[in-house]
Amino acid sequence: MPGLARRLAFASALAPAFAMALTVGGCGSTTDSLGYDNPGKLLPVTGPTSYPNPFRDLLGESDSAISGKITQGFNTLFHGAPSYKFYETMMDDASLTADQAYVTDTLHNDTRTEGMGLGMMICVEMNKQHEFDQLWSYAKEVLEIKSGPQAGYFPSFCNGANDTPTPCLDPYGFQQFVTALIFANDRWQSTGTIDYASDVLELLHTARHKQEDNGGIVDGVTNLYDAATTLPFDVPDVSSADVTRPSLVMPGSYGLWTQATGDPYWTASAAAGRAFWQSAANTLTGFMPTRATLDGTPVPGWSTFEPEGYRTQINVAIDQIWTGGDSWNVAESNQLLAFFSAQGLKTYGKIYSLDGTMVLESDHEPSLVVANGITAVASTNADRSSYVSEVWNMEIPTGTARYYTGILYMVSLLVLSGQYQVY
Predict the structure, then answer these.
(1) DSSP category for residue 397
(2) Partners of 89 in the beta sheet?
(3) Second label for 212, Cα 20 to 30 Å away, from 78, 180, 350, 408?
(4) In which element (H, E) is residue 205 found?
């Protein structure tokens, strides 16, 4: 009974996390955190005292060269020629106001909260408050649902079968919003036109208490997180009651949310997320499925390693950088890079079966090159510098499909220069 065994193992792994949350919160449930010392405001967060800088430490690049590459990447992808940029302002779209901007998926010609959230993370890390505020203003004023059962959520698009864009309430971007706003509050304070702190607290309230606010499940709308496991749902809808995506799990952020709010729920969620990853990862390759049940079992039809899943290995690396993570993060990163090295550094494919025995698409995908470069930060493999070098030597993404590679490319430049930091 392998399914039962996986569930029992997963439940056993979660037990210490829930026990810790109960102890910290002094309450009887981690699903509502009643009794935790809520200060009613956002608290400062702290991260590591230093960050790895593989561009410098592994490749020997100078600080000036690194700074120049990051600046060029940002200027090109956010404000450059139309064939490069994915950041749109009122100069390009007359429907926008002066303080709005959005990130566009140039391949599918739509706007996704994934790109909006990562765009905000890039801006706060680079101290680009103007662009940050433009993005968040657009998200709040244009994207956010203002009424009905879905109020407080943000419409986006998820890739369905055959990469077909499907409207969805994607938790990935929502969670990036939370972390980006926490950093913005710490870096710039909530004294300007945007109250970052209040917006964070509103987002987290919606994520945890949507059903309570609605008086139950209305039109299928649920909380963003499963009450029993504290894992994010694939989408906050009853149709996803037992389904998540490994790429939605962000333990590195959840621990910071506990610091910012005083709510131990997120400490439990971080531990649950790491345990989930261990259940979901294929033992032969480390690959995780695009979608899985809450115990880590691959969902039929989504049991492949493909571009959306590249975000998972990035989340693993960020968890390691921001929190020290655990030894499994290192082992997972080592296993992934060992697989790709065996496939050939410049020839590995784009989509694989989870056990790695089938190459389902053989194109050498630039966004995976970027993701593997980020993975090298958490790896101890002897050839990890080769993956960092591949990112350093990349041309700035251009063309119709530049959005996904480009947004991850900017994240990679910041991670690999030690500048994807906790504020």
Answers:
(1) P
(2) 101
(3) 180
(4) helix 196-214
